[in-house]
From TrEMBL:
Pfam families: Germane, Gmad2. Residues 75-87 have a biased composition (Polar residues). Signal peptide: none annotated. InterPro entries: GerMN, Gmad2_Ig-like_dom. It comes from Phytoactinopolyspora halophila. Residues 1-29, 73-147 are annotated as: Disordered. This is GerMN domain-containing protein. Residues 176-270 form the GerMN domain. Coiled coil: none annotated. It comes from the Bacteria.
Amino acid sequence: MNEQWSPEERALSSALHETADQVQPGPDGLARIRRRTASGVPWWRSPAVLGVAGGIATATAVVAIAVNVMGPGESETSVQPATTPEVTETDEGTATEPPPSEEPSPEQDDPTSEPTDAPGDHEDPSAEPTEAADETGQPPGDDSADADVTAMPVYFEVAERLTREWQSPPADRDVLFSAVDYSLNAEALDPRYDSLWAPVEVNSVQVVDDVIEVDLRSPVELAAGSSLADEAVQQLVYTATAAASVAREDVDGALPVQLLVDGTPPDTLFGELDATEPFTRAAQEDVRHLVQIDSPAYGEEVTAPVNVTGVAAVFEATVLWELRRDGEVVDSGHTMTEEAFTFSPYHFAFDDLEPGTYEISLMEDDPSGGEGREPYVETKRFTVVEP
């Protein structure tokens, strides 16, 4: 016991310890908690708690009387009542802890876990400005021996949806500028992918006061029909925001994008869209292809083992896959994303593929049994070579 305690403090401590020593935990405490909480009666209103509350109140009164009779010393302050111990006693005489609060989410459990929705391309999770960055899928060249090569995310259109490729910019050009220029003007690695923009000269791309300014030289025209004007804007916005998050650590991947034409914001874009204010990302599920293969890239030469990575937003987090060689299915199965219905990563590998050219196809599971829309399918052709 602390030798510096006053007589009143020692009396109060002794009384509380004596009361607590009478409480014995039972072996079925957790089961009792679950039965009690399942009944719908708040734990603090249960008969056992009300009974023990009365007992504690009585014990507290006894302690208070003892303290008041003894009285504080001349140089000592009065002792304040101690906090009621968080222990309750059941009517059988066993003790249980108060019912646990709702279990924390995985993000709360692991303080080092990545946020569900970081700026960029994985919705993440979580309104568009909080979606996760393009880093949810690793670029094909991420483990390249050439440390000077920087992979940049570039968006194109396929099946009237946006899809992403990781490409390498020229060493002497800015990543942000190059990504926008490639998206609007370059050919994709995958021949199925297209740009919705007619070729246009990019004057500059820069971040100014938390806005990405993209300056194009007139004329600025659509390569697709007017019905895809909004998607064309999203192609530019997704590319610029994703590339900014990759190229600059201090930039939020979901910054708004202000379009300039010859240095000035135009009144309209493509003759119909208001372009006087910055554009922001649309929800990923509304504009992105729901199944994305990041690696292997289309036409890539790889050695075994072959790692297949990407992101998808699919039913029950299930992605089906088929591996073909010379048009014949040589293997099939399924893999899981980290989350269902939101863009999150997946990964699986083929350990011992023989040299040759293959096609890997990934697709959504179809919970409608063919009654709904066509499932999204993504295919990449790659070649396995000898190490």
